[in-house]
Amino acid sequence: MFASLLSVPFMSFFVSFFFGRFLGGFGVSIFSSFCLGISCCLAIVIFFEVVVAGSTCFMKICPWISVGILNIEWGFLFDSLTVVLAVVVLLISFLVHLYSIEYMSHDPFLSRFMSLLSLFTAFMLVLVTGDNLVQMFLGWEGIGLSSYLLINFWFSRIQANKAAMKAVSVNRIGDFGLLLGILLCFLHFKSVEYSPIFALAPYFCNQKLCLFTFECDILSVIGLLFFVGAVGKSAQLGLHTWLPDAMEGPTPVSALIHAATLVTAGVFLLIRCSPIIEFSTSSLMVITLFGGMTSFFASTIGLFQNDLKKVIAYSTCSQLGYMVFACGLSHYFVGLFHLANHAFFKALLFLSAGYVIHSMSDEQDMRKMGGLRHLLPLPYVTMLIGSLSLMGLPFLTGFYSKDCVLEIAYSRYTVSGHFSFWLGLSAAFFTAFYSTRLLFLTFLSEPNGRRPFLRQLSTSSYLMTVPLITLCFPTVFIGFFFQDMFIGSGTPVWSNAIFIFPLNYALTDAENLPVWVKMLPTAFSFLGCSLSYLLFLFDPRLLYMYKNLPFLRTVYTFFNKKWLFDKIYNEFMNQNFLFFSFHVSYKALDKGLSETVGPLGMAFFTPYVAGVLQKYQSGFLYHHALFIFFCVLFLLLFQQFRFHCFVVDFKLCAFCASLFFL
């Protein structure tokens, strides 16, 4: 059963990819959806066995790498952390497969698309089930490869090419940091398996590492390198630029990337490596600060975006900030709870947006929509439910996890904790504002779309409606029913899967906060929602008038252009890097110095030297004796002043020189 959980998605990929031409697009879609449905059912059964019954499973399949003391086996770890992620990934992936059958039915490469979706899911399962860092890194790189292929699925579009290459290039930075962290773990712990590393971590608390002439704590360096990997995958501040551009792929890909697979991998890495990160206060502080800044930063950008999918994409980036600073506050299970909740309502938002875009003939600009609540009632209701849950309004799924994250941030009574708390509150206000703006511009305002598109609007079949209706139930109820199991005080679910240093535990303090602190997130969400609704309902021209004022237009441009991160990267980093690569590295060094000293120079220099030396080959014995004398004298002086630097063998050089001149 445990092995089948992974083997079935891989089987779906291989059959769909290699035999898709025989099965046809519809046949491949049915087969891959059936395979994912089986895996989803297996994951639910395993959830009851591992999480409810408390029976953790370790599996060793076969040897993989054996070099010296490095022995890596194909092994799988099914603990509560793994199983929760597996259920979320497989359930959402199954619904995305069903949704894609109709959404991509017009595409001639449907079989390739469905096979890549299955591959994406399979590699995510490899990542979360591996029992060692190398196997986790294999899944990490696998989802990176799959995301490139899916974002670039419509490869004839230039923007899709650029977005896919940007995603891979930016993630290379994070992957390099993660790889360095894995190498440091093997260097100091002599193993890459989770169990020995986590067991030995407390004994390395006070050990130092010389890094660039500075003495650093080993666990801090490893924790920060792992966090660099999480920054790349989970689109934290600095390496976030690839995430909104990834919207160039088909909408089902966006739903899968943002809800359950790629962006959650970084958060999973932080949670899995909690026994290392917990012993490094500097790593925890950096993680908290970056998470808080990301939540605020992304929410301010979402306010000024006009693309329907990009607004939802920046909300993902903002919510990932909540998850990350929950991990930085040492409450990894709260971050995981928000990850699971977010996966369902974010998948609902993206699939609802895809329904609207599909009905509007691929139009994504919200300013060209409006009045769709009567024409498309189902996506209006589902997007309303998803948006309310995203805002964190009471008694919906997002309310239970997001409010808990903010309460823990306040209850830590540290600079980083309160810093992230106030930034998180601001992000909650902005999230409610742009979510209401999205609903108003898309569904509630007067129709602004082109008349031919509006006349051709039609509802989709059950293959697109069933996933939307199914996702509504966890979006509304899962937070309420699973709150005590996931984040209840004293819950036995996580056992040894997550480690929290006793001094960092603050859930009890969070439960006893003043009522006004607990009410602040909800109040900020209601305030943002009400303000946005009133502005757009009664006087939208007021916003337009303010936007055209010189100063406010500059502010609007600044946020609409994403804080100018792309401009800074392109003009101050990428252009200089390309200039250096072409003019210095390529022209001066590669084609210049290397060619001159290397093959091209030797091709001209050797005949010239041979011609010069040939003139001195007179055939007279005293000329040869004179050359031997000068060469021996030169070599003696060379040895006397130690210029050979342990490379030149004096006797060998003298013998070769004698043979040459004789």
Describe it for me?
The protein has 27 helices and four strands. By secondary structure, the chain is mostly helical. It folds into three domains: 397 residues, no CATH class; 49 residues; 47 residues. It has a two-stranded antiparallel sheet with strand order 1-2. The protein has a two-stranded antiparallel sheet with strand order 3-4. The radius of gyration is 30 Å and the shape is globular. The C terminus is likely disordered.
Question: Can you summarize this structure?
Answer:
The chain has 662 residues and is mainly alpha-helical. Helices cover 74% and strands 4% of the residues.
* Percentage of residues in helical conformation: over 70%
What's the alpha carbon Rg, rounded to whole Å? 30 Å
Number of domains: 3
The whole-number mean of residue pLDDT values reads: 87
* Coarse morphology: globular
Major sheet size, sense and barrel closure? 2 strands, antiparallel
Number of helices: 27
Sheet-strand content, in percent, reads under 5%
Alpha-carbon distance between the termini?
80 Å
Instruction: Strand order, main sheet: write it out.
Output: 1-2
Low-confidence stretches: 643-648, 657-662
Number of strands: 4
The helix-and-strand class reads: mainly alpha
Please specify the SSE layout and strand pairing:
Elements: H1 2-52, E1 57-67, E2 70-78, H2 80-103, H3 110-129, H4 133-151, H5 158-189, H6 194-200, E3 208-211, E4 214-217, H7 218-233, H8 242-245, H9 251-259, H10 262-272, H11 274-277, H12 281-302, H13 308-328, H14 332-359, H15 377-391, H16 397-411, H17 415-444, H18 451-455, H19 462-487, H20 507-511, H21 515-538, H22 540-547, H23 550-560, H24 565-597, H25 599-615, H26 621-640, H27 650-661
Antiparallel strand pairs: 1-2, 3-4
